[in-house]
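Please fill in the sequence for the structure shown.

STRUCTURE ENCODING:
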């Protein structure tokens, strides 16, 4: 029995049995096309349809939104989402595509939305009937999020939105967006407000989505233009001028430090231990990478490098377990805040080491029959740079840790 299972409450133990039983008995048909490595790289409708179907079935089985109130479409349980996550990660299942909705929109709506908004939006978010995206970054407001200039003006009983968002993952599939914008140009922070807005129904009329092609050739990122998009007053969360406070809830959950546990990204295509992107998978890669008549695994220096990556990954994993025990945490925010920073950099370093292991063959990309592991490692390495930028760059994460955990003076 794992250490996690030993610590289960009776409710959690029963729920774990349910999750494990459903996952072992549910048969998901194989996809008809190659799936991307994560949700933010979904490019094609057939990929999204397959993954949307999977999330819908997992939601019907009670594995998504477990800890949200029943009235909001959740399971009404206590601390059970982490159980579902552990079991999904241990099963060879697809990942969940609506990850921006589950990880950021849902907790923000739960804590700041009116009851009618919660009941109307969250069930369809959990089931993936509605896909969500995040409208934060702008061309002139990346690291300085409070400098966003997309503007909403009150006209009658509607808010009229004009502006430009960028690096908007999944906007090409999204039905809804969480949107931080400006309602007052005279105050940098108190002039910000936070809306939930429909975008798919407005495409071609008041909303335009343009794809951004990444170095990988994928188009998961987009830029979004608003021209006189009208939204009702009820779509404003918390109140006028409260956008910066609401955005902090979103950012805490995006960085893994919020109170609502994010549903797992899944199994078979996740960055878990034995899949591309995880340190353990470097062992098989080395064993199957020729080098001077032997393999990369026969090189003691390479073995040391792989073991160093495994140690770093295991250390981060055990730190996350420690975060669940209050008595073992010197500061309640330290481990949650450092998790995004540490794991994103481990992922990038794993990719770099994989390139070293593959040697010249690392130049072969996906769809090349001669590429090791189908060319997935070069793709993972290039995508890893986006992960160290998204949700706050590594530099910003270190500043946050210094200020909020160590109590250091705010950097200028």
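FILLED IN BY: designer on duty
SEQUENCE:
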């Amino acid at each position: 029995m794992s250490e996690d299972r030993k610590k289960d409450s009776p409710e959690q133990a029963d729920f774990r049995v349910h999750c494990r039983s459903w996952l072992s008995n549910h048969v998901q048909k194989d996809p008809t096309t190659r799936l991307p490595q994560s949700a933010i790289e979904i490019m094609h409708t057939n990929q999204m349809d397959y993954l949307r179907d999977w999330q819908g079935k997992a939601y019907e089985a009670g594995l998504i939104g477990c800890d949200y109130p029943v009235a909001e479409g959740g399971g009404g349980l206590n601390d059970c989402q982490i159980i579902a996550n552990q079991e999904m990660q241990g099963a060879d299942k697809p990942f969940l595509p609506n990850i921006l909705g589950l990880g950021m929109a849902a907790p923000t709506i739960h804590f700041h939305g009116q009851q009618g908004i919660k009941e109307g939006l969250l069930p369809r978010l959990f089931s993936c009937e509605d896909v969500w995206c995040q409208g934060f970054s702008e061309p002139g407001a990346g690291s300085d999020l409070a400098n966003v200039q997309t503007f909403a003006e009150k006209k009658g009983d509607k808010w009229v939105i004009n502006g430009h968002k960028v690096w908007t993952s999944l906007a090409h599939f999204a039905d809804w967006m969480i949107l931080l914008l400006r309602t007052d140009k005279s105050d940098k922070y108190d002039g910000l407000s936070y809306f939930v807005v429909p975008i798919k129904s407005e495409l071609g009329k008041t909303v335009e989505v343009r794809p951004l092609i990444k170095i990988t050739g994928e188009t998961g990122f987009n830029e979004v233009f608003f021209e006189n998009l009208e939204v009702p007053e009820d779509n404003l969360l918390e109140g006028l001028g409260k956008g910066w406070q609401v955005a902090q809830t979103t950012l805490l959950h995006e960085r893994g430090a919020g109170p609502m546990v994010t549903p797992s990204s899944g199994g078979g295509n996740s960055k878990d231990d034995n899949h591309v992107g995880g340190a353990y998978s470097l062992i098989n890669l080395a064993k199957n990478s020729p080098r001077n008549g032997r393999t990369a695994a026969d090189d003691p220096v390479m073995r040391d490098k792989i073991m160093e990556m495994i140690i770093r990954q295991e250390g981060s994993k055990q730190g996350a377990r420690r975060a669940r025990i209050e008595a073992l945490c010197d500061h309640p925010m330290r481990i949650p805040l450092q998790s995004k920073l540490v794991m994103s950099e481990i992922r990038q370093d794993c990719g770099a080491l994989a390139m070293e292991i593959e040697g010249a063959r690392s130049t072969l990309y996906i769809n090349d029959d001669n590429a090791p592991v189908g060319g997935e490692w070069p793709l993972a390495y290039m995508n890893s740079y986006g992960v160290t930028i998204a949700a706050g760059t590594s530099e910003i994460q270190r500043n946050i840790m210094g200020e909020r955990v160590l109590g250091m003076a705010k950097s200028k």
